[in-house]
Design goal:
Distance between the termini: 68 Å
Structural class: little secondary structure
Order of helices and strands: EEH
Largest sheet: 2 strands, antiparallel
Number of strands: 2
Shape: elongated
Strand order of the largest sheet: 1-2
Radius of gyration: 18 Å
Amino acid sequence: MNIEIRDSCNNSILFEGEFDSLGLAVEAAVRARVDLTRANLTGANLSGANLYGADLTGADLTGANLYGADLSYANLTRANLSVANLTGANLRGANLTDANLTDANLYGADLSYAYLNRANLSVANLTGANLTDANLTDANLGGVNLTDANLYGADLSYAYLNRADLTGANLTGANLTRANLSGANLSGANLISADFTRANLIGANLSGAILTDVKGINTTN
């Protein structure tokens, strides 16, 4: 069947062809290095799709199924991924600057080395996600679930983590300078060598957290 991928702003055709599914059409477009900027992929089933290095700048992927998809090193700057299913997706090294990931499911996703500057991840599920060395500067992580997530060396400076759940998370060497962690749950978290200089920890739960060589938190009391 003929499948068209259209621009979400002006409805112009970005790519078209005969394919059995939209997922196969998107994969073909990516292989052909088609510019999918602002592509309308709302609710698309892209489960397991190979979208390595895709240019999806400003694309609308609201509610899309990207379960297990390979989006490593993709450009998703300003993309809308709200309520998308990204369970187990590979987003290693992806650029998600200014992206909207509100209420997205990123359970077990690989976001290592990803750029999430100013991204909106409010109330997203990042349980068990890998965010090693990810850049989350000034990101909105309000109410996010980061239980057992790996944030080793991540940059969370100026991030908003109000009421975030970081139970059992690994924040070894993470930078949380001036982050807002008011009401956050850090119980059992590994905070070895993490930097909390001028962070807001009002009402935060640090019970059972490992505070060895942590900066910015008074551990003498």
